Amino acid sequence: MARITLDNLAHSYRANPTGEQDFALKELNHVWNDGEAYALLGASGCGKSTLLNIISGLLHPSQGRILFGDRDVTHAPTAERNIAQVFQFPVVYDTMTVRQNLAFPLRNRGADPAYIASRVQAIARMIGMESELDHKARGLTADAKQKISLGRGMVREDVNALLFDEPLTVIDPHMKWELRTQLKSLHREFGHTMIYVTHDQTEALTFADKVVVMHDGRVVQIGTPEELFETPQHTFVGYFIGSPGMNVIPARVEGNKAYINGSHIPLGRAYAGLDGDVAIGVRPEYARLSDSEGLPVKLRRVEDVGRHKIVRADFFGQPINIIAPEGATITTDMNRVVFDPAHINVYRDNWRVEGEAA
């Protein structure tokens, strides 16, 4: 297992980058703790796989260093990093049985046959393939082959890190939940450093101790699921995490008030001297409809999703989402929205401003 340090790390696929816009991975300085489970979360093309491939040694960065513990592995080949990587699409040996595929990494390292047998049996049980152990991999379905890939990645107990690059893409939805649960169980049991790349917020939030949110080649926040939900450090985090995402509304902020289209609302903290592109961000969970106070809105529709209702509204051309309790009554005269001041975040140029106690 290893602490992973990213020191002044950046990467461009261009031979001679001339500016930040030429970098697929913009400068990073982060330390990822030994034994924690991280998820790299972001939209396609944001740099997740580039970063994972640099960590694994499949790609050498344009600048900076990567350390495993105190050892600089920036230019070390993958084989010397002692990692296991599982890719988006299954990589298996078709001529081998499931048992032989799972045993391959251990046999390669000369492990004791009795240990190999017991470890393979345990992993097969974990991925639900005990009955197929002696079947050839050829002819198995894509999701079965991906389970073999996952199992082969998890079979070693001595790795510095386990890296997963969108490994559940071809897995059926029911099995996805089971395998995520098994990965969490594996992490609790053995304490491997795990890095899991995904564009699916549910996968990220249910798997990881900490989620690394990436946007446009940059890490915009590293935090627990609660931190990402309550205090998004960038408007992209607010938009990407949550369903629906955070409402972001341009505003003028002075002291402990935000002024929006001729109305003002109270804030839970005080702010001074904010210039640039200023906005407030409020989760739909912290908004409520009213018939007498708040900002004027025009209701467009109500979506009953069972556990709650999602109210779609319009505020001077800006869409606003409000989450109402399942049994809430919504009438036509409820045409105003109130935000909980304690849960309003303030942003300048898309980055959260802390503010002071009001």
The tally of helices reads: 8
Strand content: 35-45%
Rg measurement, Å: 24 Å
Going across the major beta sheet, what is the strand order?
6-7-8-3-9-10
Give the full name of the CATH homologous superfamily of the largest domain.
P-loop containing nucleotide triphosphate hydrolases
- Provide the CATH architecture of the largest domain: 3-Layer(aba) Sandwich
Organism: Roseibium aestuarii
Domain ABC transporter: 4-241
Protein name: ABC transporter ATP-binding protein
Family: Belongs to the ABC transporter superfamily.
Molecular structure report:
Belongs to the ABC transporter superfamily. InterPro entries: AAA+_ATPase, ABC_transporter-like_ATP-bd, ABC_transpr_FbpC, ABC_transpr_MalK/UgpC-like, Mo/tungstate-bd_C_term_dom, NA-bd_OB-fold, OB_MalK-like, P-loop_NTPase. Keywords: ATP-binding, Cell membrane, Membrane, Nucleotide-binding, Transport. This is ABC transporter ATP-binding protein. With 358 residues, the protein is α+β, with helices and mostly antiparallel strands. The chain folds into 2 domains: 237 residues, 3-Layer(aba) Sandwich (Rossmann fold); 111 residues, Nucleic acid-binding proteins (OB fold (Dihydrolipoamide Acetyltransferase, E2P)). Helices cover 24% and strands 35% of the residues. The protein contains 8 helices and 23 strands. The strands form 6 sheets. Strands 6-7-8-3-9-10 form a 6-stranded mixed sheet, sandwiched between helices. The chain has a 4-stranded antiparallel sheet with strand order 2-1-4-5, covered by helices on one side. Strands 11-14-21-22 form a 4-stranded antiparallel sheet. It is globular and about 75 Å long.
